[in-house]
Fold each of these.
Amino acid sequence: MKAELDKNYWDNRYKEGQTGWDLGEVSPALKAYIDQIEKKDLKILIPGGGNAYELAYLHQKGFHNSYLIDLSPTALSNFKKNNPSIPDKFLIEGNYFDHIGEYDLIIEQTFFCAIDRTLREKYAEKTNDLLVSGGKLIGLLWSEDFGDDSPPFGGTKKEYLSYFTPYFKIQVLENSRNSIKPRAGRELFMILQKLT
Ligand SMILES: C[S@@+](CC[C@H](N)C(=O)[O-])C[C@H]1O[C@@H](n2cnc3c(N)ncnc32)[C@H](O)[C@@H]1O
């Protein structure tokens, strides 16, 4: 039976240490993108950030207007323990789809593949809503499928384009050149810019 991918499901995954998605470090593709951003005052959101090494990296690099949102209180408390110098106001406990805000940049990593497939169109619409005019969604998406039983749910470039094209100018959606070894050749890197 398919599990309901709610707060309990995700919080238990952290409590039980069932976090096979966790890289334990900043994703190299995201690090490379972050390293070339010049505007340090961008307002940045990492949805479904989990242990959010990228959030810690952003703050370390002087991006002091960067936030994560996650359903799991355990993930957030782990993040606080590991990053005591980052103020709580940057850690939002909640559901991405209910979140209200305005961001210049949203960074995706294994959140899109963690939500139920039926929410994919809504993800594109919600992400568009949360971005300022000209704002960007960047990050990584799986380029292969893993079936429908439990996350991660993968997909194809063609499928992703069907969700994002109505809302975004597709600047980049291509094989990631700097994935970690086990994900090499299995991920797309995207840079999508809000259309309106
Ligand atoms: C597969 S994990 C990825 C975590 C992190 N991005 C990483 O790469 O290590 C998916 C994360 O999304 C969170 N999540 C799932 N559904 C969510 C929702 N609707 N709103 C906010 N967070 C959600 C989970 O709690 C979990 O931390």
Amino acid sequence: MSAARAGWDPRNLPSQHGRVFLVTGANAGLGYFSSEQLSRAGAHVIMTGRNPHRLADARAALRRRVPGASVETMLLDTSNLGSVRAAAASVGARDRLDGVLLNAGVVHPPRERSVTQDGNEVVFATNVLGHFALAGTLLGPLARAGAGRLVWLGSMSTSMWRYDLADPQLERDYSPWRAYVQSKIATQALGVEADRRLRAAGSPVSSIVAHPGYSVSGRTVGIAGVNEPTRTGRFVDNLQAALTQSKEHGAWSPVRALIDPDVEGGSAWGPAVVTKGMPRRARLVSATRSPEVGARLWAFCEETAAVRWP
Ligand SMILES: NC(=O)c1ccc[n+]([C@@H]2O[C@H](COP(=O)([O-])OP(=O)(O)OC[C@H]3O[C@@H](n4cnc5c(N)ncnc54)[C@H](OP(=O)(O)O)[C@@H]3O)[C@@H](O)[C@H]2O)c1
């Protein structure tokens, strides 16, 4: 594996003029700041989200902060497979798509297990299944771009729980924390498994996992309609300043995974100092690198989402 360029400067990205990226959950947090960094580098960004008003606010904020930015918005609720199909059909017809950031996520799961209108557990549906379906449906335009990339948002929390292959939707034993961690283990495992399958099929598309360390709103610049933490929120987040970083900095690893020419399929990226810092190569917990876990999850997702990757 090549050591991706040591001199990578997330504040001075290589030009992305002429390139097109789609970001899920782009109206807030890491999705917003990734969109901002990509458009500042000259890319056209398709900002997607589930709420038209929040998306409009985010697009307006991005245009204020990046004069001349080339952005559009698109409704995409990752917990709803019909919404995923509709957005994928619209994007799939385009000539080019250079990367998809599979970022949207429920980060504070409901106390009680709840299901979507498709009948899937909400956290699994939003964080995992919708992204699996979206990614599989966008391989055509990603391949047309030559070396399109899928970047999946993993998490350090994956080392804090064991994955239960027999119960991906937590029908037997739900807790909010467990739902979150399982969803992130599944996300990472699918990201790695996707790359195995793309390589085996000779596809030019690659799949990469990135995590943002520990990135909090209260240490992030206030932006109307995008990031408006309360004074208490800022106070609490700043108490943990030694361990945390802003969401702006948290976006550095996913953005590098999307655009650094030296990043290889199947690799993982995260902050240099565990929870914060410059974007560097990272190592994933073994469960998420396991071909057995990847293959079983893949089969489960194909059946549950009724989407077969071409
Ligand atoms: N922040 C961290 O330290 C951290 C650490 C590890 C991993 N991550 C991962 O990074 C990703 C982003 O986290 P964040 O900190 O930026 O969270 P965030 O600030 O809460 O933003 C989450 C984004 O996801 C969107 N979203 C939620 N449900 C959705 C749905 N059904 N359809 C479409 N969009 C939906 C939200 O939109 P609404 O505004 O409409 O809710 C919002 O735009 C998540 O996948 C998270 O698991 C974050």
Amino acid sequence: MEVETITKETIKVEGMSCGHCEMRVKKAVEAVEGVRKAEVNLQKKQVVIEYEEGKENLEKVKAAIREAGYEPV
Ligand SMILES: [Cu+2]
């Protein structure tokens, strides 16, 4: 049986300016395979994600943020 490792990671995101942006980023990130949870903080300009370990997943998350129109740092 395979054991899943859940990792917590903070990604800085540029370009969010209101609650609408916050929701867009949250939806985009949570739609990525392997992501369990995404918490977006507009003031801190960051999103904290819980995802199944693997560098590939993190790259997919960043790609999803870019596709939504924001810039992961
Ligand atoms: Cu906005």
Amino acid sequence: MLSGKHPMDSLIASDRIPANASGERLSIEQLWQLLDEVKDPEVPAISVVELGVVRSIEWQDDTLHVCVTPTYSGCPATELIEQMIQSALEQAGLRQFQLETRLAPAWTTDWITPAGREKLREFGIAPPQGSASKLSLMGHSEIIECPHCGSQQTEQVSEFGSTACKALYRCRDCLEPFDYFKCI
Ligand SMILES: [Zn+2]
């Protein structure tokens, strides 16, 4: 598990990228599209943009600033996601950028885009339902719909699924196990 580190630790200077004489500046829109190609290492069906971890992309003078909010502190995928974003930017020829980790406000499953939720379902993972704040009020009584058959007759088998960020559920109707993306 990663401990909470100081945000400054995550500022990654990219001076090791060789200068590219014809480096044309990508537009912010192109950069969002570029990072939409970076898949979540745990659920490759969904991109880091759809997951809502990329919070902002902006040019400050000649340096690109990308702000990332990790899904869960302690989620081992977080560092991997940052490395993947970094390498996507490098491959696009960017040589001056800073990756910043912003821990507040904390990521919530509410930030997963509608397209991202649909892809989670197609991937066999029950997307987070409702808003995280609503669910926490409801405690453990929430109904998780089976992503395979849509049944609401499901039960939690284990608090942890294929990763710590997901819980393992089983459908009582089609008997299929599935991961549920836990709301925080
Ligand atoms: Zn089912």
